């Protein structure tokens, strides 16, 4: 029996055990895990330090190191996320619709668990806790496969969750970690159709494309963010400067950070030089610019065609000057990864056109794209940000991890 087969069989039993859990029991467990994480902060940080040390030996970049690093504050944030999920309304058993049909059958459609969820993700160990909390609250068993760089961090976090489950008399296999981080085992998980009901990849473009190409189980595509900010002809340029700097520099390693700047030619000569100077006061950014923008940003470098399609996850940003709103919309739609896009404008018609015509899960007017987040959107912890249209789109909270089932009650009816 392979590793994935063993985990899959254990998850099957755990998913059946989960069906018996009610809201009170689930919430008590989530609060217990939150308390455990805080109590074991030093132990978690010690394991995370091992990962950071190994990652530095492999030449990890400072930006990616930030994704991997845990701190006391970040552990507190994970615990708070668990508490928030406990506070959220439980979607399981919620009636979507109910009616009596012409045959006298009482038909009720309710929300139910998906079953067994698998998740493949990269070097953000907090994902282990976020994913567990949402899966558990929706009565789903979950199999986690994190990246090599975060193995020790993921192991301690999952082990602490499993210990808490066991202490509460629950099946610890409600959450399991694939500790073999080889590509072969990951590929086996992608193809485990006998066990996995849904696979959610969360990470960079290479991971997402690999899963799309090799998975045989249903997947939800998440996370890749070639995110644009378009500065329109009527934009408040002071506002635009603040928003671009925030979206690019506040945390460049995450998927809702801006990667591409599109500027209307009417304001480019005034805006781009000021932006280039203002951003230096926060953090140096390498701008990769088209020919028009190069003339206005002396320290910029020429952009290649590939730069406009790249999620940099670093202090790098492409720059494109356009002649019209429609050209901006067309440009964004050509290069978007359907994550988050923003327009800075004082023209309500331009704002409406951008929001209606740009094909992305989240489309902003006069705001930073950094807000695309399950916490900010009131969903509690998120399991990912879906960039596709079925069956979920945007930040995925509890409801996105449910399916529905029809319950039909009769009194001896037969179909003539």
From TrEMBL:
Source organism of this protein record: Streptococcus downei MFe28
Name this protein carries in UniProt: Gamma-glutamyl phosphate reductase
What does this gene product do? Catalyzes the NADPH-dependent reduction of L-glutamate 5-phosphate into L-glutamate 5-semialdehyde and phosphate. The product spontaneously undergoes cyclization to form 1-pyrroline-5-carboxylate.
Compartments (UniProt record): Cytoplasm
Q: Which domain of life does this protein belong to?
A: Bacteria
Question: Per its UniProt record, what CDD domains does this chain match?
Answer: ALDH_F18-19_ProA-GPR
Q: Name one GO molecular function term.
A: glutamate-5-semialdehyde dehydrogenase activity
Query: Top enzyme class of this protein?
Result: oxidoreductase
* NCBIfam families, A to Z: PRK00197.1, proA
Q: Which family does it belong to?
A: Belongs to the gamma-glutamyl phosphate reductase family.
- Supply the PANTHER family for this chain: DELTA-1-PYRROLINE-5-CARBOXYLATE SYNTHASE, GLUTAMATE SEMIALDEHYDE DEHYDROGENASE
Instruction: Give the matching InterPro entries.
Output: Ald_DH/histidinol_DH, Ald_DH_C, Ald_DH_N, Aldehyde_DH_dom, Glu-5-SA_DH, GPR_dom
What Pfam families does the annotation carry?
A: Aldedh
Q: What are the BP-aspect GO terms?
A: L-proline biosynthetic process
UniProt KW keywords: Amino-acid biosynthesis, Cytoplasm, NADP, Oxidoreductase, Proline biosynthesis
Q: In which pathway does it act?
A: Amino-acid biosynthesis; L-proline biosynthesis; L-glutamate 5-semialdehyde from L-glutamate: step 2/2
Its recorded reaction(s) are:
L-glutamate 5-semialdehyde + phosphate + NADP(+) = L-glutamyl 5-phosphate + NADPH + H(+)
List the GO cellular component terms. Answer: cytoplasm
Q: What is its EC number?
A: 1.2.1.41
Which positions fall inside the Aldehyde dehydrogenase domain?
A: 9-284, 316-378
